[in-house]
Amino acid sequence: MKKVLVCGAGGFIGSHLTKKLAAEGCWVRGVDLKYPLFSPTSADDFVQGDLRDPQICRKVADQPFDEVYQLAADMGGAGFIFSGENDADVMHNSALINLNIIEACYQSGVKKIFYSSSACIYPEYNQEDPDNPKTAENTAYPAAPDSEYGWEKLFSERLYLAFARNYGMDVRIARFHNIFGPDGTWNDGREKAPAALCRKVAETADDGEIEIWGDGKQTRSFLYIDECLEGIKRLMQSDFTGPVNIGSEEMVTINQLAQMIMKIAKKKLSISHIDGPLGVRGRNSDNRLLKEKLGWAPTRALTDGLEKTYRWINQQVVK
Predict the structure, then answer these.
(1) What separation in angstroms does the CA of 309 have from each of 25, 185, 263, 283?
(2) Residue 143 domain flag
């Protein structure tokens, strides 16, 4: 039986990944500050602990696991990342987690480790045109992320690659592009655009009004959780280290995203554009390297994932 450690197993992606690995017959240890908020954990062993503490990291990575998935981070959506108020915590907490985990895994002889990086590492200067953002993997340098979250992710990419070079560790790195789906945060200030807009639409009566930060013409792509997990699996099964983008190439404006959700909800709402934290003007996943190295890329339509996500968030709202 394959033995697996999932760091960040109480979070959105981590809890879904734990469920998938357990269903595939793996023995899974999960670790996080908290248990999953919206469903029971599927981990065989769940350690509630702080990965900023090196003793906790040594405790959970106490054996040569076949695979380790490092998804733990101090993060959130635009309202959390771009406010400027959380920069020190984001950098300090996430860097400590990664420094501790990679060292503990090295010391215990872990065979393979996955690190979840982010599209936020890409330079702001390549994402000023909402219709033509540049996010090919080789455009990461000269580095100029638009947030401290992105800078920490870029540092940690280099950390894992350095351990691979110097100590022969088998590392895989993916740059996630806006992963969404059910069982994710939707109302605590850390939610991302799909969840936030689903909540606003669900809470607003027909013919009402919802608010969107900025003019709504900023562009993004959003990847449903199931396809994210498929990308992780394929990367881990490959001989490619990365970094590689895991995201959708279906780029939409935030206004279009809102309209999609209104259509799913069968509501006609108006939009009020207000000031708020925005991030880059445009971002989309460039999947050329993904297709080349893994022979695969996401294909699910954005509306399919939004239907499932809206249905789940609407259930939370009406409880």
Answers:
(1) 27, 11, 14, 22
(2) yes
**252-253 vs 219-220, strand pairing mode:** antiparallel
Residues 173-210: tens digit of each pLDDT: 999 999 999 999 999 888 999 999 999 999 999 999 99
Q: What is the pLDDT of residues 13-30, one digit of tens each?
A: 999 999 999 999 999 999
CA gap 268, 91 in Å, rounded: 41
Does residue 125 carry a catalytic annotation? no
Q: Which of 122, 149, 224, 310 is catalytic?
A: 149
Q: 103 and 190: one domain?
A: no
The total domain count for the chain is 2
Cα 108 to Cα 58, 102, 228, distances in angstroms: 8, 10, 28
| Residues 47 and 117 placed together within one structural domain of the fold | yes
Q: What is the pTM of this model?
A: 0.96
| Nearest residue to 184 (alpha-carbon basis) of 73, 37, 42, 78 | 37
Closest CA to 244 of 145, 149, 118, 132: 118
State whether 174 and 241 are in the same domain: yes
Q: Could you tell me the residue range of the domain that residue 265 belongs to?
A: 181-220+250-284+301-318
- Residue 294 lies inside a defined structural domain of this protein: no
Examine the domain organization and report whether 195 and 265 are in the same domain. yes
**Greatest extent of the chain over all pairs of C-alpha atoms, in Å:** 60
Instruction: Name the residue among 258, 248, 246 with its Cα closest to residue 293.
Output: 246
Tokens for 138?
């080789």
Q: What's the sign of the alpha-carbon dihedral 200, 203, 206, 208?
A: negative
Q: Which of 39, 42, 33, 25 is nearest to 7 (CA)?
A: 33
Alpha-carbon distance 62 to 50, whole Å? Answer: 15
Question: Exposed (0-12), middle (13-18) or buried (19+): which is 260, by Cβ within 10 Å?
Answer: buried
